[in-house]
């Protein structure tokens, strides 16, 4: 069984009404294209095999990307700073925002810049871990997520 979805921007905007007044369906579809091309597999060969789960993950990604890149279709965007507010001052108005660029192997800082990205990161934890299943006590098994070729562990399991 392989899961793929067809993105429905109207259903996304109904699910996340906070974007409905500032975002067009075309902008949502663009963000879905970015998400499916660079972040989450929508070919049916990825580790997420439930289409309902895949839809929810894509919705979270689209919401995250809309906040990172802006919700407006205008060339200038909606003038929202990327990232999360890290400090603020009221007298003479000072504020600072954190925009994390992924470095190394952890993408968590980039995802944790928005509440939608943080939820996506938590929801995908089971899919980012290797799951090894041994065949009996032989030490020979397979990685279930990608159904790779069996391999040998010296000394058994």
Structural class based on helices, strands and sheet pairing: alpha+beta
- Evaluate the radius of gyration: 20 Å
Bin the helical content. 25-40%
Low-pLDDT segments, ≥5 res: 142-150
Termini separation (Å)?
A: 29 Å
Any idea what the shape is? globular
Tell me the total number of β-strands.
5
- Return the string of H and E elements: HHHEEHHEEE
Strand content: 5-15%
What is the number of domains?
Answer: 2
Mean pLDDT: 77
Number of helices: 5
Q: Main sheet: which strands, in order across?
A: 3-4-5
Largest sheet: 3 strands, antiparallel
Explain this structure to me?
It is a single chain. With 157 residues, this protein is of the alpha+beta class. It has two domains: 9-123, no CATH class; 131-157, no CATH class. It is built from five helices and five strands, in the order αααββααβββ. Strands 3-4-5 form a three-stranded antiparallel sheet, with no helix packed on it. It has a two-stranded antiparallel sheet with strand order 1-2. Helix 1 packs across helix 2. It is globular, with a radius of gyration of 20 Å. The model is unreliable at 142-150 (pLDDT under 50).
